[in-house]
């Protein structure tokens, strides 16, 4: 009898734990990165100002999503998903070990680049192999991805708990060392148990030729040359300017692609109408992640500086990064509830359309910043606030995420012309990258020397997010009509 994992192919366990440890390191890094960068040199950090630190955070999180595009290409054309995922796991572990030992910002940035490349090789290809375990598709595939999704959130929950504890009790660099060790263990278990994957991801999807390898080596050479030029000072490295330039470049690519899509992609009238819906969802996704990704930047600094984390009755101070685990915990608790609500509404023909769910998600996420504005009023008067303010904000963000995030990629794929499905997936990741960079730049506007401005700044994020959601909700019916028979 074939080995199984929770009633699924045993190979799902291999991928479950590989992705769990990848998310462990990603969310663990998300919880400690900005705190490390702004910590004084005497305390083991780099003493970087908030604006620069949050720009670095935005570049890192954006890069982690954007690297999925070349990572998927490498697997499809050159190595196969299985090898790409193994190399990615090794790269993530190695990058974290570089961070743990980097004595200068230059080496630290190099470690971040290695991690980004590793995530790009591992994350999309592990997901692709999950699908390959279920060639029959259907309900079993959906159930398999549900189990896989729980592994993602389990890693997201555990990562901040361990890395933040290590950072506060064993030194700033201990967080990166812990992330590297656990990712190395994840890569080891993947290598030892990959036999359970059968033929999934064993070979490239496309036939290998010399041309893809040549393209790979040319691109790799350009990348190495650019890094070397920054290293020796030929290209000045200013993270804020780099973030702004990257934002303009990626946004320009998105604009040009949509122009191409509507003018030269050969779409018929129905496909063009559906492409309008994809554009609306793209803009909604960007707006959502601008607010949501404040969690690891401005809100993490808020937790560090303005939140009373001391539990006097047990003489324990909650590590700042532990609050980053709250979102994943809420997802684990409430994802089944939200899924049940959609099913119950669908039975009564009341299930909101994709644009309406996006709008609801934006409004809920934006409402979290109304809570933060209230907390910031107390801070502006010189008081610290309880962690419950942040927890309530993260609860609102979780509800927003559960309305928007699962819908985004699903409906992008449903609406996309079949011949452009891969490009549409890349476009969706592009929206996350733009949102993450904007989030980092927005977080940089919070000035620790001007706390009085903080309530207004959180209100501005609320107005932007909830306002965008309200506009989208107002136009959800006409936008739904453009979808045709897609439900």
Outline type: globular
Give the N-to-C terminal Cα separation.
39 Å
Helix content: over 70%
Helix and strand succession?
Answer: EEHHHHHHHHHHHEEHHHHHH
The total of beta strands comes to: 4
Q: Helical stretch count?
A: 17
What would you say this structure looks like, in words?
- With 487 residues, the protein is mainly alpha-helical.
- Helices cover 76% and strands 2% of the residues.
- The chain is built from 17 helices and four strands.
- The protein has helices at residues 11-38, 50-66, 68-79, 81-101, 105-132, 138-170, 174-193, 210-232, 239-263, 269-292, 298-306, 326-347, 354-380, 388-415, 421-443, 454-474, 476-482; strands spanning 4-5, 8-9, 310-311, 316-317.
- The chain has a two-stranded antiparallel sheet with strand order 1-2. Strands 3-4 form a two-stranded antiparallel sheet.
- The longest helix is centred in the N-terminal third of the chain and has 33 residues, at 138-170.
Strand and helix layout:
Layout: E1 4-5, E2 8-9, H1 11-38, H2 50-66, H3 68-79, H4 81-101, H5 105-132, H6 138-170, H7 174-193, H8 210-232, H9 239-263, H10 269-292, H11 298-306, E3 310-311, E4 316-317, H12 326-347, H13 354-380, H14 388-415, H15 421-443, H16 454-474, H17 476-482
Antiparallel strand pairs: 1-2, 3-4
Short summary:
The protein has 487 residues and is an all-alpha fold. It is 76% helix and 2% strand. It has helices spanning 11-38, 50-66, 68-79, 81-101, 105-132, 138-170, 174-193, 210-232, 239-263, 269-292, 298-306, 326-347, 354-380, 388-415, 421-443, 454-474, 476-482; strands at residues 4-5, 8-9, 310-311, 316-317.
């Amino acid at each position: 009898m074939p080995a199984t994992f929770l009633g699924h192919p045993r190979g799902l366990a291999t991928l479950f734990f590989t992705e769990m440890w990848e998310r462990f390191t990603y969310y663990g890094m998300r919880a400690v990165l900005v705190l490390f960068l702004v910590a004084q040199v005497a305390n083991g950090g780099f003493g970087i100002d908030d604006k620069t630190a949050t720009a670095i955070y935005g570049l890192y999180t954006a890069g982690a999503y954007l690297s999925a595009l070349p990572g998927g290409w490498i697997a499809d054309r050159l190595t196969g998903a299985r090898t790409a995922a193994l190399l990615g796991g090794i790269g993530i572990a190695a990058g974290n070990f570089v961070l743990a030992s980097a004595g200068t910002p230059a080496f630290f940035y190099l470690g971040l680049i290695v991690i980004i490349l590793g995530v790009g090789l591992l994350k999309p290809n592990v997901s692709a192999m999950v699908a390959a375990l279920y060639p029959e598709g259907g309900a079993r595939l959906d159930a398999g991805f549900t189990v896989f999704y729980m592994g993602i959130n389990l890693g997201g929950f555990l990562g901040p708990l361990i890395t933040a504890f290590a950072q506060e009790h064993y030194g700033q660099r201990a967080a990166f060392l812990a992330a590297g060790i656990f990712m190395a263990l994840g890569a080891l278990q993947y290598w030892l148990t990959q036999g359970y994957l059968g033929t999934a991801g064993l070979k490239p999807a496309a036939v290998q030729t010399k041309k893809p390898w040549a393209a790979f080596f040319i691109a790799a050479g350009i990348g190495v040359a650019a890094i070397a030029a920054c290293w020796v000072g030929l290209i000045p490295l200013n993270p804020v300017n780099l973030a702004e330039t990257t934002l303009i470049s990626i946004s320009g690519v998105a604009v040009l692609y949509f122009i191409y899509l509507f003018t030269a992609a050969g779409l018929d009238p129905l496909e063009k109408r559906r492409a309008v819906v994809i554009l609306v969802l793209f803009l909604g996704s960007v707006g959502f992640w601008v607010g949501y990704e404040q969690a690891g930047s401005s809100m993490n600094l808020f937790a560090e500086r303005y939140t009373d984390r001391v539990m006097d009755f047990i003489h324990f101070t909650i590590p700042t990064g532990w609050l980053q685990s709250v979102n994943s915990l809420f997802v684990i608790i409430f994802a089944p509830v939200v899924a049940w609500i959609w099913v119950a509404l669908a039975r009564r023909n009341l299930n909101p359309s994709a644009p309406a769910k996006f709008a609801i998600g934006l409004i809920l996420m934006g409402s979290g910043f109304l809570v933060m504005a209230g907390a910031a009023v107390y801070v502006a008067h010189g008081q610290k606030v309880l962690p419950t303010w942040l927890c309530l904000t993260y609860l609102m963000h979780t509800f927003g995420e559960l309305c928007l995030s699962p819908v985004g990629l699903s409906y992008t794929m449903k609406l996309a012309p079949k011949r452009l499905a891969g490009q549409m997936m890349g476009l969706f990741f592009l929206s996350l990258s733009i949102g993450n960079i904007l989030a980092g730049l927005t977080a940089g506007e919070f000035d620790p020397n001007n706390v009085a401005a903080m309530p207004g700044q959180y209100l501005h994020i609320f107005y932007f997010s909830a306002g965008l959601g309200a506009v989208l909700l107002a136009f959800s019916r006409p936008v739904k009509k453009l979808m045709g028979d897609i439900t």
